[in-house]
Amino acid sequence: MDGHRVLSMADSCLLLVDAVDGPMPQTRFVTQKAFELGLKPIVVVNKIDRPGARPDWVIDQTFELFDSLGGTDEQLDFPIVYASALGGYASLDDRVTDGDMTPLFETIVDKVPAPPADPEGPFQIQVTTLDYSSYLGQIGIGRVRRGTLKPNSPVTVVDRDGGRRNARVLKILGFQGLDRIEVGRAAAGDIIALTGMDGLHISDTICDPSHPEALTPLTVDEPTVTMTFEVNKSPMAGKEGKYLTSRQIGERLERELKSNVALRVEEADDPDKLRVSGRGLLHLSVLLETMRREGYEVAVSRPSVIEREIDGVKHEPYEYLVADVNSEHQGAVIERLNERRGKLTDMQPDETGRVRIAYIIPARGLIGFRSEFMSLTSGTGILTHVFDHYGPMGPANIAQRRNGVMISQGDGTAVAYALFNLQERGSLFVTHNDPVYEGMIIGIHARD
Predict the structure, then answer these.
(1) 319 and 379, same structural domain?
(2) 265, 318, 325, 374: which has the fewest Cβ within 10 Å?
(3) Which residues pair with 390 in a beta bridge?
(4) What CATH code is carried by the domain that includes residue 386?
(5) Nearest to 300 by CA among 284, 286, 316
(6) 314 and 411 assigned to the same domain
(7) What domain range includes position 144?
(8) Is 124 in contact with 146 (CB distance < 8 Å)?
(9) Per-residue pLDDT of the chain (448 residues; tens, 9 = 90+)
(10) Nearest CA to 143 among 186, 103, 97?
(11) How many domains does one find in the chain?
């Protein structure tokens, strides 16, 4: 996960929690990574002006989260700042409703230690994130551990296996807000981006040629979900996108690999197909949506999980899921999650009539569940989940579709009077005047 590597450059962390919802599943994941690195958090309770805000409950939930993650006494004794990002103010008192962000700034200055850097030693930096620019080429980003660096300086790159090669830094880019600006010098403690060195990898150490010392390698989480990408061969091919060929799709994925280090792209058995693996459905969904907006047309397979064999036993990825639903919907949601082999671990009702339920569930059980969840909760539910662990393989029939489908019998255009008669039979994917072709799935049938 990028967040884990980015945290290795930090001296502290601000944990932002909602004044109503409290810590979410992704909060648990990134907080655990921060605690493993020994970071001491500052808790910021945001949206304190939101109706129904319950800061005391949120702080209690945050403390319980920290305790369950094995936080030290110093990490459990965390400072608290109450804020409204929309209102533009922060305070150490949850009853204050105006002002500016000065209390948050002062808390950071007072509580965050200075970076443990050596400005006098030989230069050393570890690559924690990669980026790519068509103008600058590959960009390595990290925090200077010791020494100073100027543009056009010779350096030595040491990889995770101890291999060494000489290179030269062309430009040094500093950060100003969300922008990168060219700087003439970088010193210990600075977070910078370096250009001019192709072939960089995560955890490579860039250092002074006279002191080629590698830092402890960083880890990159392995993918858990895979899909097959191929050329769109449907009758609708070429009507929406402008990049259609397997060569164009392959080149786009190759560019993505230069900055998206958690992604894996492999050739499939069919030469016209590529197997693309990522950290979860969301990871791959973001990639697909980005490619769609750029004008690429891609046909994709159903997602499948990546299995592992541990001690001779097949294992699959499990996820930690939290669903926040109205109390009248909890029965239906729990029933569906149980059918998908989920295990209920926690359930907490609140005074607003909502219930928060937590599950450990196979990643296979979440394939296709989000749309079903939104239907079950009439669009009012909140669903979040993150990778938890690899566990023994469950039954093979998880998350299979139970309902039949409605299929077009010919080519043409969908018309309103035909759809009107079909809508009683199930949920439709098409609307009036949408083009259809023979064999196209146009809806899910109401019956099994």
Answers:
(1) yes
(2) 374
(3) 317
(4) 3.30.70.240
(5) 284
(6) no
(7) 124-207
(8) yes
(9) 466 678 888 889 999 999 988 887 678 778 888 898 889 999 999 999 988 889 999 999 999 989 988 889 999 999 999 999 999 999 998 888 888 999 999 999 999 988 887 888 899 999 988 888 888 888 999 999 989 999 999 999 998 888 889 999 999 999 988 889 999 999 988 999 999 888 888 888 999 999 888 888 877 778 889 999 988 887 777 777 788 888 899 999 988 887 787 889 998 888 788 999 998 888 899 999 999 999 998 889 888 889 998 888 899 999 888 888 888 998 999 999 998 889 999 888 877 788 889 999 998 888 888 888 888 898 888 888 888 889 998 777 775 667 788 888 888 888 888 888 888 888 888 888 888 888 888 888 877 6
(10) 186
(11) 5
The CA distances from residue 113 to 40, 64, 73, in Å, are 10, 25, 17
Are 107 and 203 in the same domain? no
Question: Tokens 């319950």 map to which residue?
Answer: 54
Given 207, 238, 273, the domain boundary residue is 207
Instruction: Tell me, yes or no, whether 331 and 301 share the same domain.
Output: no
DSSP label of 126: E
In a domain, 216, yes or no: no
Q: DSSP characters for 3-20?
A: HHHHHTT-S-EEEEEETT
First-to-last alpha carbon distance for the chain, in angstroms, is 39
Q: Is residue 385 part of a domain?
A: yes
User: Is residue 319 located within the same domain as residue 363?
Assistant: yes
> What type of residue sits at position 128?
T
pTM (two decimals): 0.69
Residue 249 lies in a domain: yes
